[in-house]
Amino acid sequence: MFAPTPDFDLLMMRRALDLARLGIGFARPNPLVGCVVTHDGRIIGEGWHRQYGGPHAEVNAINSVTEPELLPRSRVYVTLEPCAHHGKTPPCADLLIEKRVAEVVICNADPNPLVAGRGIAKLREAGIKVETGVLEAEGRWLNRRFFTAQEQQRPYVVLKWAETADGYLAGPYYQSVAISGEQSRVAVHQWRAEEQAILVGTRTALHDNPRLNVREWPGQNPLRLVIDKNLSLPPTHHLFDGGQPTLVFTYRERASRPHVEYVVLSEAEDLFPQMLRQLHQRQVQSVLVEGGTTVLNSLLKDGLWDEARVIRAPKRLGGGVPAPKLGLCGLHEQFRLGEDDVFVFLRTVG
Predict the structure, then answer these.
(1) Are residues 158 and 230 in the same domain?
(2) Which of 143, 147, 104 has its CA nearest to residue 122?
(3) In sequence order, what are the beta bridge partners of 168?
(4) Same-domain pairing of 126 and 208
(5) What is the DSSP secondary structure assignment for residue 68, as one 8-state letter?
(6) Is 208 annotated as a binding residue?
């Protein structure tokens, strides 16, 4: 009889995490979840949460098992605690109990108050052996958007900008300048597909007239967000074309229309906490901030960010709008895309 070792558990959980990643851009606002079913040291079933509103990972994995008679002697690896409540689908904990699986290994407990240990407790009460915390840090990183929304009641905020080798991100009068190379531009479209919403400020919207959609990578368009405090942006700009859902954060009243909603904020409160609160209420779990410099610097100053991706190109401008300054504090990763260097920073707390 095969006895699973710690190395085997790590291997199977890494496989489950790899499966979970396949749901990026499609499962939101649900978490990314992967599941692997094993018996006697071999994989007999796999699945992941493919689409919001669709079957969860455990359901897809169980349904993929071609020898269901093995399930009562199976060891199941799942990246997040099985749900114990009725949502759009029945509780996954109940399914595992119904199939009488022998053991369940879990990467992360679910912080959602509707679950929060209830799934683990239900499995154990049914006599199923449960282990937790396998590759816990990796699981939290994969689902950092979900955990931020659950624990901090705000979206996960990713800042992004491209800067020249001499530290500028636009021309002297905020005119748009092509800075990054082709590979970086493709990567930006991938990043757009991975986040639920994308934000620009008034000046960037005015000067760049961006579409803020996904064109060079497969995936869904993000929710467009724009700050227009005094409703000064031209209605002919791409942001108002109705091509994808758009929220306009403003201090002035204006009637919404299909795919363009005006969200009136209070001038008596700080802008960005209000915006993030509104987005959390709408179940928006992540925002990619593409500028401009005022928005980026404000979020940096207020500590209302989680990750920053800085594309540094070899081009020089000799003057213009200075890029935000991060130094090397919180540097998480560095890699190259063509001729560009990409630096990924994480906000350090405390």
Answers:
(1) yes
(2) 104
(3) 322
(4) no
(5) G
(6) yes
Query: What is the rounded CA–CA span in Å between residue 173 and residue 265?
Result: 29
The letter for the amino acid at 171 is G
Give me the domain span that covers residue 57. Answer: 6-148
Query: Is 164 annotated to bind ligand?
Result: no
Q: Is 40 left (phi over 0), alpha (psi -120 to 50) or beta?
A: left
What CATH code is carried by the domain that includes residue 337?
3.40.430.10
58 is catalytic: yes
Q: Is 215 annotated as a binding residue?
A: yes
For residues 135 and 208, membership in a common domain is answered with: no
Query: Annotation-wise, does 112 bind a ligand?
Result: no
In a domain, 100, yes or no: yes
Domain identity same for 256 and 325: yes
The residue out of 120, 148, 176 marking a domain boundary is 148
Whether residue 323 sits in one domain with residue 202: yes
Catalytic residue from among 46, 58, 163, 194: 58
Tokens for 224?
Answer: 């467009």
pLDDT tens over the chain, length 350 residues = 688 899 999 999 999 999 999 999 899 899 999 999 999 999 999 999 999 989 999 999 999 999 999 999 999 999 999 988 666 667 899 999 999 999 999 999 999 877 778 899 999 999 999 999 999 999 999 999 999 999 999 999 999 999 999 999 988 877 778 899 999 999 999 999 999 999 999 999 998 999 999 999 998 999 999 999 999 999 999 999 999 999 999 999 999 999 999 999 999 999 999 999 999 999 999 999 998 899 999 999 999 999 999 999 999 999 999 999 887 678 999 999 999 999 999 997 65
